Amino acid sequence: MRTKNPFFDIGRISFTQNEKLSAHTTLGVGGKAKYYIEPETFYSLIQVVRTANVKKIPYKVIGNGSNLLVSDSGFSGLIINLRRLKGIKRVGDTIIAYAGETLKNLITYCEYNGLSGLEELSGIPGQIGGVTLQNAGAFGKSVADVVSYVKCYDGKIKTIKKENCGFGYRTSAFQNSGQIILSTAFTLKSVGTKEVADRIYKISERRKRLQPQGKTCGSVFRNPLGKSAGELIERVGLKGFSVGKAIISEKHANFIINNGNSAEDVYLLIEYVKQKVKQQLGVTLIEEVEKIGKFL
Known about the structure:
This protein has 296 residues and is α+β, with helices and mostly antiparallel strands. The protein has six helices and 19 strands. The relative contact order is 0.14.
């Protein structure tokens, strides 16, 4: 139940206590957040962050939780979910999308308006803030390929040009920087709507063939340079291997399907995969999935 927030004196914003984070991750696991809030405006977001800083409350900003593994013990601070900060606007061939907007909605907008550049990312279940933060990508294309600039907040609102965003393979300068992404501007190419629609359809069908359905966090590990994480995991014989009700997909070994309600199972499976690949192949796998809370 949402209640008026007696802890944050910031007007109309409301919060919940002991919010189940399993309801806010695509893996469907995770304990409770001591405090949880969904700001509806950028002004509200800034006021929440300022107040949390003043009161020295640890906070974590999330989106739709598609790349998160939250521990069973939850998070003892404040979770700020940006899912309500949605919006898309167009200035010529530049599209500005707010942090809480879904990538799916943005690509649908591009399809209807014949704007090309994001088709390869069709099917990635993230929001704009998260996919920018991680420089998400697929099939040889990444967010950074079409970013123009990013607006963020770190005590004041800043506009960061693409060349200063520190984009790399599944990384950006925004990770662990304390900066909160507010919006991302994309420069796209105007083409026919049919051309964009056809490309989206082909990518979507390819994704269905190659990637599993179910409760997942997407790709668990980054691909090592010149290698495929999924192929490495398959080479050490771990396709179909499980810990509890968390299982490595038979369809694509870089995906973990969660059929239970234990974040610890997922965590232990990730650690086991890393250990086996390191022992047998000498390769250190690095997670794409972000962990929140305490694990063994």
